[in-house]
């Protein structure tokens, strides 16, 4: 019996190995578990963008793009299994869509020579390309997000945060802990008091945290949450009658699924975003013709235009532009992961290019280099309109405070380089 | 006809009480070891190591440890995840503080530290048992994970609160860190798994194991015949935690390479290992391996069949996987409440009689 079982396992695994052809961009998604509602939309956006390229243009440079999916359930062990099971299939680039999995994979992709793109998440100091050769995090990272939020709060408070208190409600994981360092520096610079309030994942239960907020009445609350934690936080904020416009989330706490459960009470909730909102872009007409109407949309096209969908689509767009650049540089359409890395490092997405893609103003211009793997890191602030059930952009792109961020990133990257005996490149 | 005691003469007490009384079993055991040590390291791929064999061996060690406590000692524990975290963080602190000492020694030391922590949290078992003890160990689970999240000293003040395994070598071969080869990972885990299984087998059939089982079966009677409940229970907690600590250390340093207390060592891990023990069979060494194989290999197998071979959507496959594994657990527990080990035992009994069952 054991032998037969082993034989069956072996057979199934052999059958699971995909053919070595085309451009493979594994989609490490999660559609189940406490983060599934958000992960679902993101994965659909990611798939649909490549489906559009395959359907309309026949892929990139004549090569179809495959996006084999692997369910990670936002769990690092499953993420590692997904990485191992897909890397043999000629994967060009990874977008693990989880900060925890990113931390696991940074050493692995560096050893295996496969680039990794972590737009808006992952390890912030990966922006320093001289240390993190294989990791990219444009257009923005967590520290950019924190800085943009604080700049917006400065604007709201007429440029002065002295004596104010800001509470950070965060997912007690690598993701949620990321902004603490930046916010501590910013609190010194701007003179506000920072209170840290951790929420243990997955975070359905936040009664005590919000009672603390009701008692201490911080002037602003910054929310670094994900998945079911966001819904619970916004609902609890409404329950303790915390003024919604003073609650501001990172981009991962800025989706429709996060605010809709609280209904009208969520009106006025703000979050930062690094991409445009809504479907008011010519791109969606193309998507409708080639993907939605032909029935090829991932997940049946239920989430098109939603905030998380847009972010997934944007991640795919950055990868697709990277592939295009890599093909140009390599002079061949069938690129290797190493050539893909060169392509990402030379990536340039101008405003004109975004307009050409049918998404004018959807994202900021991105220009990467050997030193800079993270772009400029600008963000906009969006606000939820509960009656229209829409996000509205209330600011233009805000530049983060590089004066504070750059030394922090350099220090963290240097520490990583020292720990792992990496010689900085780019000299 | 092959599977017979007949002709296999035992001429000493030593022979009579050996682990595998049948010749075929003995041969099977040696062949398995020979394949595991002599063949698999040369053919293993990254995928087989990281998705199947390494987690199987590590969870087998954890299940062995928990089986000593629950199956042999009769003490319920829901703190496995927390104790694995102790092993992982102890290895991390030791290997970053004393980089010149071999990682393998650190892993064993981490097991020792976990044993001390386990004994401390096992103290309530002298006063309470059953569900009450389960709650006390549950407290250990939550306390330990909270501690490793709260006190930055444990994760060397890293910004993300993650611990990352540094690169370490053993006799010139890299055994931890990203550059580790599949066979090195596998061999390290295999040596620990086989060594600890050997220790467990010999402990459980010796004085220590008999004391544990006496306490398990009836603690008052055991006390009357001269078993000291303090030493018996504490030694069960110590040995069990040692195994679990080593499993946690291997999980972090050899398998994952980076870990986060609340995510990697949460309450789910405690339940997973407890399920392995229950499905595999309480009070059985083979059962610990069988349970670990069942819960590690089956999900991977199902995923590859449903997504890889049949091409179903990943979310549907993930949900089905949970349902199938859950249904199989219920099925096994109804059909064979004593676990896979009992099934195996029955099979062997029948084979001995076959083809003349009467």
Verbal overview:
Chain A: This is ABC transporter permease. Chain A: Pfam families: Peripla_BP_6 (PF13458). Chain A: Keywords: Signal. The complex is a heterodimer of chains A (427) and B (358). A seven-stranded mixed β-sheet of chain A has the order 8-7-9-10-11-14-15, with helices on both faces. In chain A, strands 1-3 form a two-stranded parallel sheet. A two-stranded parallel sheet of chain A has the order 2-4. By secondary structure, chain A is an alpha/beta fold. Chain A folds into two domains: 239 residues, 3-Layer(aba) Sandwich (Rossmann fold), CATH 3.40.50.2300; 163 residues, Rossmann fold. Chain A is built from 15 helices and 15 strands. Chain B is built from 15 helices and four strands. Chain B has a two-stranded antiparallel sheet with strand order 1-4. Chain B has a two-stranded antiparallel sheet with strand order 2-3. In chain B, α3 runs antiparallel to α13 and α7 runs antiparallel to α10. The two termini of chain B are 15 Å apart. Chains A and B meet through α1, β4, α3 and α4 of A and α3, β4, α11, α13 and α14 of B.
